[in-house]
Write a structure and sequence with these properties.
Layout (H helix, E strand, L loop, with lengths): L63 H5 L34 H21 L3 E3 L14 E8 L7 H7 L9 E9 L5 E4 L5 E4 L3 E4 L2 H19 L5 E5 L1 H11 L2 E3 L5 E3 L4 E3 L4 E3 L1 H9 L8 H19 L2 H5 L1 H13 L1 E4 L4 H10 L5 E4 L2 E4 L2 E7 L3 H10 L17
Parallel strand pairs: 1-12, 2-7, 4-13
Antiparallel strand pairs: 2-3, 3-4, 5-6, 7-12, 8-11, 9-10, 14-15
Helix pairs in contact: 2-9, 5-6, 5-9, 6-7
Length: 409
């Protein structure tokens, strides 16, 4: 083959060999030539598997699972997964008592037990008296009739109370209060009988009705009331000085509404006109005063009913039943100065307490000045039977027969 001229594209003399590029058998390449690495055997053994530190290596492809999950290449250093941030600690709450649903019925049960057992216990401390009279009596009548007697019994007073009232430990020989309380389908009626009423006292002729108590105690007084009115007395309840004072104080006072200024040194009373809260001593003086107003004893019996009604209103207060100290004090004060007839039972006493509360008609027995003594009174022969008959028959009381002082309007 003829020699090619210079510049024909063939490498010139002295230039590096490019036979390896054009497919001819290469000569031993220089040490800095880029070399093709033979494939390594699967076993990785033998001389062909030897690696030189300056060789360019083809790294194996990472597995899809490793790439997708953030895994590390084989043989590489694993990067530690970052720890989750610490959860915020909840603020400490103050301890508060939790009332479970089951606790409420238990408390209600304990309250009911307390409300029942306290009166039953105090019932055992109440004095019982024989108040049933001998001889003929009116037949039983519809409804229930209680005879309420306020005596001057002072043996239930404390030493301090006796000093204030300037009274000794009397046994209760007189009565300033005589009230017939009727309950039934015709409603509640509270009728006062003035202590100066002249009537027949069995075995003693015509006397003031309050003398029956001094002459023969409860039985003779019951007999005298039944003979005067024809009303059958079912139960007898006697209250002393201490009963009024201590019971009012146990309630924390009662409200009275005098219609005028009242100053009665004999009753130790000095109060102003208008509604006001008073303690036990003032309530007693208010109900006993008879020297301030024109009608004397007739006005006094109206004030006695006012105080008794005020006590009934206080007894209905929810605070009476939810306050165990107040509830105990009221029962203790009432039981310490009350006497009842021997036939009365705890249920009868409970009915009496309920009868003392709420609305009721309040009257004084219809009366006229006594012909023989203007300082005494007698039952009005026309209007008094109307009131007595209504109570006996458990029917509505005529308004004309029911007035605060017993006098005709």
């Amino acid at each position: 083959m003829a020699d090619r001229p210079q510049g024909s594209g063939m490498p010139e003399e002295g230039t590096p060999e490019y036979d390896w590029l054009y497919g001819s058998t290469p000569r031993t390449p220089p040490g800095d030539a880029t070399q093709r690495m033979p494939a390594q055997s699967a076993g990785g053994g033998g001389a062909s598997s030897a690696q030189r530190p300056d060789e360019t290596r083809v790294m194996p492809a990472a597995r899809r699972e490793a790439r997708g999950s953030g895994g590390q290449p084989p043989g590489g250093t694993r990067t530690a997964t970052a720890a989750p941030p610490p959860r915020p600690q909840p603020a400490k709450r103050r301890w508060r008592p939790r009332f479970r649903l089951g606790l409420i019925p238990l408390l209600l049960l304990l309250l009911v037990v307390y409300l029942v057992t306290v009166p039953l216990y105090h019932w055992t401390t109440i004095d019982k008296v024989d108040a049933a009279p001998d001889g003929d009596r009116p037949a039983d009548q519809p409804g229930t009739n209680y005879l309420i007697v306020g005596s001057d019994k002072a043996d239930d007073l404390s030493a301090e109370q006796r000093k204030l009232l300037q009274t000794g430990p009397r046994g209760g020989t007189n009565t300033d209060t005589i009230i017939v309380l009727h309950t039934g389908s015709g409603g509640r009626t509270m009728m006062s009988i003035p202590r100066d009423t002249l009537t027949e006292v069995p075995g003693h002729g015509t006397q003031m009705i309050n003398s029956a108590f001094a002459l023969g105690g409860p039985p003779l007084l019951v007999s005298s009331v039944e003979g005067l009115t024809g009303i059958h007395i079912d139960h007898y309840v006697e209250l002393g000085f201490g009963s009024m004072i201590n019971t009012v104080d146990a309630f924390g006072g009662v409200e009275i509404c005098p219609k005028q200024d009242m100053k009665d040194p004999l009753a130790r009373l000095d109060i102003k006109k208008g509604c006001q809260e008073v303690d036990g001593l003032t309530a007693l003086a208010y109900s006993r005063s008879r020297h301030v107003t024109a009608l004397s004893d007739l006005d006094r019996v109206a004030r006695q009913r006012e105080v008794i009604s005020a006590l009934g209103d206080e007894a209905l207060s929810p605070w009476t039943f939810v306050n165990p100290v107040r509830y105990w004090g009221i029962n203790d004060a009432a039981s310490g100065a009350i006497r009842v007839d021997e036939e009365m039972n705890p249920l009868d006493l409970g009915r009496f307490a309920l009868a003392m509360t709420g609305d009721s008609q309040t009257c004084t027995m219809p009366n006229l000045p006594a012909p023989s003594d203007p300082n005494r009174i007698v039952a009005d022969p026309e209007r008094a039977p109307q009131l007595f008959t209504a109570i006996i028959g458990d029917s509505e009381v005529p308004k004309a027969a029911c007035t605060p002082t017993g006098r005709a309007r």
